UniProtKB/TrEMBL annotation, chain B:
Keywords recorded for this protein, A-Z: ATP-binding, Nucleotide-binding, Transport
Highest taxon of source: Bacteria
InterPro entries: AAA+_ATPase, ABC_transporter-like_ATP-bd, ABC_transporter-like_CS, ABC_transpr_MalK-like, ABC_transpr_MalK/UgpC-like, Mo/tungstate-bd_C_term_dom, NA-bd_OB-fold, OB_MalK-like
Entry-linked Gene3D superfamilies: 2.40.50.100, Nucleic acid-binding proteins, P-loop containing nucleotide triphosphate hydrolases
Source organism: Candidatus Segetimicrobium genomatis
Gene label: ugpC
GO CC terms in record: ATP-binding cassette (ABC) transporter complex, substrate-binding subunit-containing
Domain ABC transporter: 4-234
Protein name per Swiss-Prot or TrEMBL: sn-glycerol-3-phosphate ABC transporter ATP-binding protein UgpC
Pfam families in the record: ABC_tran (PF00005), OB_MalK (PF17912), TOBE (PF03459)
UniProt cross-references to CDD domains, sorted A to Z: ABC_MalK_N
Molecular function as annotated in GO: ABC-type transporter activity; ATP binding; ATP hydrolysis activity
GO biological process: carbohydrate transport
Amino acid sequence: MGLLVAVGVPAIQIGYVILVEHLLSLLPARTQRTLRPGLWLAPALAFLATFLIYPAVYTVYLSVLDARSAAFVGVRNYVFAFTNREMLIALRNNLLWLVCFTGLTVGAGLLLAVLTDRVRYEAAAKSIIFLPMAISFVAASVIWKFVYEFRPAGAPQIGVLNAALTALLPGFRPVAWLVNLLTNNLALITVGVWVWTGFCLVILSAALKGIPAELLEAARVDGATEWQVFRRLVLPSLSPTIAVVATTMVIFALKAFDVVYVMTNGNFNTEVIANRMYKEMFTSRDFGRASAIAVLLFGATVPIMIANIRRFRQQEAIR
Amino acid sequence: MARVQLSGVTKKFGAVTAVNEITLEIPDKQFTVLVGPSGCGKTTALRLIAGLEEATAGDIFIGERRVNDVPPKDRDIAMVFQNYALYPHMTVYDNMAFGLRLRKYPKTEIDRRVKEAAEMLGIGMLLDRKPKQLSGGQRQRVALGRAIVREPQVFLMDEPLSNLDAKLRVQTRAEIKKLHARLQTTTIYVTHDQVEAMTMGDRIVVMKDGLVQQVDTPLNLYERPANLFVAGFIGSPAMNFIDSALAEAGGKLFVDAGTFRLEVPADLVSQARPWVGRRVVFGVRPEDIADRALANGAQPAWTIKAGVDVHEPLGSDVILYLTAGAHSIVARVDARTQAKMGDNVEVVVNMRKMHLFNPETQQAIL
């Protein structure tokens, strides 16, 4: 089957091109020139239309229908999305993810990029920090479930975090990290940060290496302290990269799902929008509400993408 | 303003010694050029003075202060970098004001200094631009301006003209010279270009393999090179070196190159006499060789017969690549010469400008 796909897909592509070129050769040269780009683009556009635009439009359509997509209900599903208690918790939590997850991944990535840049064992340090990227979110969640494991006070602590804290702090009472309403959201976000910091690190580190050494030396000779060099030169030079990385992280924060699904399944006030959507879709079988939530999520990313593209264009303009 | 002193300064990068026990004094207000081929340690020496590299051994003084452990920002120096190193996200004004702002100068003072320097460099109308919107020559001026406004004790310049085109380089060369005459700030200037060194330096430090070869005024370097390296490095086309022996015949000394013999002038005989009967390297600059047909009062004892391999007319004069026996000789002769490729010519060597070197130590004999 795999072989069939590996051979078949390129064969179809090449076949299409040969066919199109053959048909074009029958036409006058000028017509050829006007038609060719369109015909070459057509398969890609058809692909996009089928698998991206059509589902998106169809989802919007479903979002104004009822649970079984039988009757038009207007904005009722959207009213639900903004008033339902679970949904409000999910919206609050996503906001928390947006701020904490993005802030911590980008912040830690930047800090580590600057710090690793100055040590001899840079490659080793970066590899270790990047390593969690290679693990799936589900596996990461399972690992962290062991870290957060809770046993009542007095019983042997098998969770790393509680074990360490009870051993180090006399009189420390073990915390059920994933149940405690003060800690559980941050505990989940920590898992996300653990996985994604490495990504931010490598991208920011690459950008950091791109700043000419002469520039930093010039600032040092000009009288800047190391902090001023960072604040007045490194940070502004990195800002386009930081924007790109932060955007990526914001989108991941909005899409947060696997960690929550595996570790708490949204219980104890840890619900997020994507998990809510999953539940409406596959547990409650309410296509209308699920679609409305999907549109909501989609809508939230659009302004971020627009801001990103605009920024990119500005940079191209001054190049 | 201050003098700069290096004493026994060494810099090693792992097993490589970039600068090897340099002892050097750069007097106050002087324009000193460090020159040498790439990898000779001149830039490292400059970076040691700037504090961008830490010396492995030795002491560095700026003024009366030992600065080995002083960070660059506190050395009161300003540096102009090869690639200008302008801050890309700042305007020209902000680039120039950056160092003053960090030092918390009052706004009016910063404004006065920036405007004054901009005026001096003719970049007054560019103050609101970003470096990307400037040409290479303009960026160069901004980099200079950034150094000037600081009014430091010492200017350090690391090949600041190497990214400019030939015409602009010559023009900027003169401007930097003028600027120095006006500001009188001690300047250390690094270049690999011997013409730049000769035209700009009050004094030139010639370096090779991390060692100082000779420190002298441009004219003395040209006329009295201390060794074969300096002799070959300064001057273009380079000095001719001919393996010879020093012979004595009839009370006169001769440089004997096998295919030709040239008489040593009487006033140099006493210095050359100890070398009679030994191998020497005879050196003569191309400009001290003339076409005999055009030379006044040509000396028969200073004449070489040679074949012309290549004839390069430069307009003002002609470069002839000659062969005399096994020796290749370059001569810069009068433009009126009739010599053409393939001809046999007679050229006269001005033996009063001759040089002799010890082939083993490569040091100058005279």
